[in-house]
Amino acid sequence: MTEPDLLKALTREGVLAGVSVRYWRANKRLKAQDLGLDPDRVSERLISLGHKRLLPRDATAPLALVEGRAHAFVEANTFPFLGGIARFLPNAKLDAFRERIAALGRDFDHARRDFLANYAPERGRALREWRDSAAMLAADPGPLLAAIEASFPEPDKLEAKFAFELRLFQISAPGGLSRELVSLGEQREVIDARRRAAREARHQIQHDAREFVGDCVRTLRAQTAQLCDEMLASMASGKTGGVHGKTLNRLARFIDQFKAMNFADDREMEERLERVRAEFLGRSAEGYRADPAAQRDLEAGLAAMRDHARALIQSGADELVENFGQLGRRRLQLAG
Prior knowledge:
The protein is of the alpha+beta class. Helices cover about 65% and strands about 10% of the residues.
């Protein structure tokens, strides 16, 4: 396998996804001048100016809620690529990912419309509250009130501060630079510099791609071990008298999620999970609680899968990474 084969395999198996959520945060960073203080005489060790809220927190809470859900969903269904500069989305998750992000986009749009509709009265109430409290923050409240009022955007300019966007990218190492893209006088110097930079960048991204595939394999195995530990702890807590239906459903969802995220083809872990599904998920929680022997078997099966996942983590993922790149080469040859 060569490193370019690995990069091509990654390109075939998924895309890079980025979700951007932008809205007016209703914050103002106070300056010393806003409080009538001399900036040269303010000790940062003693006085913290910092960000102050222009509107009550609940005014932007629906927008923040959607933003938090979007980022949590992205993190749960993608892998951080090259130190987190982007998120790698396996093909098997693409349709469901886009559908969920589209639904969150609609939630964001609804929250945006509500915020814009209520902005004028919220702004008026907030300014009245600032006038009432400004005297407690500054000896001369005039400059502070002027700074606060100037920090509120005009309603007709506010909508441009909102956006909810999904962008998908294809993985690619940088190439050369066409002569047509630079002026005649700069061609030799610029093209030579671009070629050197592109060569170094390709080497780095190809090296990092290998580490990335290995990290993804280790992450899924670690999540498997963690899930087993959490299920065993839940069953041992005794709050539900043993096995709970939510615990079994969580295991079933995790197995489906593992399969969808398993772009590197970790067959050993996936087959182990499928055996657990076949052996232990055909019985209901009530059935387990009524049969102590069956519950002990379930606990033993989860403990064995946890230990197996940890052993695989310790054994490393080099062979899987190698096979992943070779599979990419074979598929590309067949396609050719």
